[in-house]
Task: structure prediction
Amino acid sequence: MSKTTPSAIGKNVRLSRILKAGKGVIFAFDHGFEHGPNDFKGKRADPRVLMRLAVDAKFDAVMAMPGIAEATWEIWAGKVPMIVKLTGKTSLRPLKYQFLQYQVGLVEEAMVMGADAVAATIYWGAEREELMVERFVRLSAECNRFGMPMLVLSYPRGPAIKSQDDADVVRYAARASSEVGADLIKTHYTGSKESFQRVVEASTVPVMMSGGPKETRSIDFLRVVESVMEAGGAGVVVGRNVFQSRQFMPLVGALRAIVHEGFNAKRAEEKFGIKG
Ligand code: FBP
Result:
């Protein structure tokens, strides 16, 4: 019989609040830092407005930067698990620093706040890959002390990477993220079910798809998510494809139907009355 530790139990307990039967639809809500508030239109620039929508839409978890998690705690507390993102970079930085994420928060503070997981980005292939990995190792050691799961945003990126969606590099990055101790991976879609299946197979932990820029037609995004699920993916971490759409609620409903109930994209589109 294998012996487990309080830390491993803590990670499993917290992860089970986020993933239902190993699958999830998570709201990515760190764009105010990564891209700036212009990503949000009109009233949605107010983080409380989007957090309320995310809670009402029944996302399985929200991933936000420490300050947004703090500013909106009364909205998410007791309603949706919070994943506090502990690394970031602004798009204001000079081009030569765009492939480096730095630390913006502490595991301990996320835990004190009531977070169910933390997240960190590694740009695999970037010139300063080793800095992000060393930081990850320190964060991961803290996570192990507290039984806190770590979501890795596993992104191949940098001058040596020709395409960040290339199946071989996404697969390599997912494997590298597994090998340094990620508990859950979020990465780019690789263009087909077959290629994403190879990514999932090479990883030792569940792999979720990262949403990406808004698709013109929502059905195209739903089809991608359908293919991720067919490939054995654990779901989707989505931001712009939902919050830049007027169909926020129906889209989250459709995503939940695809991820949790095995709907295909067409059936989900019809059931939730998604237009365009
Ligand atoms: P999206 O679904 O909007 O693509 O969000 C996923 C995400 O990784 C965010 O967490 C992050 O803010 C953003 O994409 C990073 O975008 P970029 O690819 O421009 O660095």
